[in-house]
Write a structure and sequence with these properties.
Layout: E1 6-8, E2 14-15, E3 30-32, E4 61-63, E5 70-73, H1 85-97, E6 102-106, H2 110-122, E7 125-131, H3 136-144, E8 148-152, H4 156-167, E9 172-174, H5 181-187, H6 189-197, E10 205-209, H7 214-228, E11 237-243, H8 248-254, H9 276-285, E12 289-293, H10 295-307, H11 318-324, H12 331-341, E13 346-349
Parallel strand pairs: 5-13, 6-7, 6-9, 7-8, 10-11, 10-13, 11-12
Antiparallel strand pairs: 1-2, 1-3, 4-5
Helix pairs in contact: 1-2, 1-5, 2-3, 5-7, 6-7, 10-11
């Protein structure tokens, strides 16, 4: 099987995926080649390797007890307890297919855990770089899978910069959930499953937590492909939710200045998402919006979910918090959220398990 090439979003040059480039020489980011088209029953650019999979996907959807018309997709029931498994299995499969022996990844925790698990499964050495402030529970998960764990002083961006330097070494595969476009195609199985579990139709809206935006892009890919294939009538609105303490996309959306303060939602505390323009365009194209929630609402949302029997990490509570506070939200984004919730047909992902971050 020929693997789809990587295509630069800026200059449109194509590169063989086996070259291990993670960014175009012109500085542009990669997508999967526009010459490749998904086919029914073969939507992924590389089929998941049976020896690598951990049984990820097919997570349940259940109705909320406290938010009318809202259903939760329980991504925290994934093998490493987050939705990042969907993309990690594809990168590990790809790496095994092209003969990679060494991989590096940067993460705020969940992507690093998923990479550690799946690359261990594939028999490939993996180094995971995370900020030193990452929760101890996530660090323990990464270590347990045998990855080389490197704690980086400073921000999430500092960890990414350190990983990129390692990725310049010959033969090292940068298993980045941000830069490698195969990852988003793995995550798009989340969107396909919503369609399947919803009786072959798409909901009116989905809410997604957004830092680097891989779940948002995965949803957009899945929904676009379903509509283009004639399997769905229209795109759902995608509502991106950011923590108020770190909300660069919301600032750009609302044309306001971005600010930075600590937040309990460590998994989405990304000050400068590399694919920011792509994320904003996706939200705009599907009639969505971008909203923020403060830490008090996140903590309250996490507690409310626990009372429904659902124990999640703080980052996984941001979408619940946005929906629960919709009635008091000002501005056009708040009104858009209220309008979509009124359709009683909304899906919210619960992305990471509470045991990854037990404290408030």
């Amino acid at each position: 099987m020929n693997l789809p090439a990587l295509e630069c979003r800026s200059c449109r040059r194509e590169f063989d995926v086996a070259e291990l480039l993670w960014r175009c020489p012109c500085g542009g980011l990669f997508d999967v080649s526009s010459q490749w088209r998904p086919q029914p029953g073969s939507e992924l650019p590389v089929p998941v390797e049976p020896a690598v999979t951990l049984g990820e996907g097919q997570t349940p959807i259940i109705e909320s007890r406290s938010l009318p018309g809202v259903r939760f997709k329980l991504e925290f029931l994934s093998p490493t307890l987050s939705f990042k498994d969907r993309g990690a299995v594809l990168l590990a499969t790809l790496a095994a297919r092209i003969g990679v022996r060494s991989a590096v990844v940067d993460s705020s925790g969940n992507a690093g855990t998923a990479a550690a698990a799946y690359f261990a499964r594939a028999g490939i050495d993996c180094e995971v770089l995370v900020p030193a402030s990452t929760s101890p529970e996530k660090l323990a998960q990464i270590r347990a899978h045998g990855a080389t764990l490197t704690l980086v002083s400073g921000s999430r961006a500092d960890a990414a910069a350190a990983a990129a330097r390692i990725a310049e070494r010959p033969g090292v595969f940068y298993a980045s959930h941000v830069y490698h476009p195969y990852f988003a195609h793995g995550v798009k199985t989340y969107g396909y499953e919503i369609w399947e579990q919803n009786g072959g139709r798409l909901p009116s809206a989905v809410l997604v937590p957004v830092g680097n935006g891989t779940l948002l892009l995965g949803c957009y890919l899945a929904f676009s492909e379903l509509v283009n294939a004639g399997l769905a009538e229209r795109m759902p609105a995608i509502l991106a939710v950011q923590a108020a303490g770190c909300a660069p996309l919301a600032a750009a959306w609302n044309d306001t200045a971005a600010t930075r303060s600590p937040t309990v939602a460590e998994g989405i505390a990304i000050e400068a998402p590399p694919r920011a323009g792509q994320l904003l365009a996706a939200v705009q194209a599907c009639g969505g919006a971008i909203v923020t929630v403060d830490d008090a609402a996140i903590v309250a949302g996490r507690a409310a979910l626990a009372r429904e029997g659902l124990f999640v990490e703080p980052t996984a509570a941001v979408c619940y918090a946005a929906a629960a506070t919709a009635a008091s939200r000002p501005g056009r984004s708040g009104q858009r959220l209220r309008d979509l919730l009124a359709h009683d047909d909304v899906v919210i992902p619960l992305c990471g398990a509470g045991l990854k971050h037990p404290g408030d």
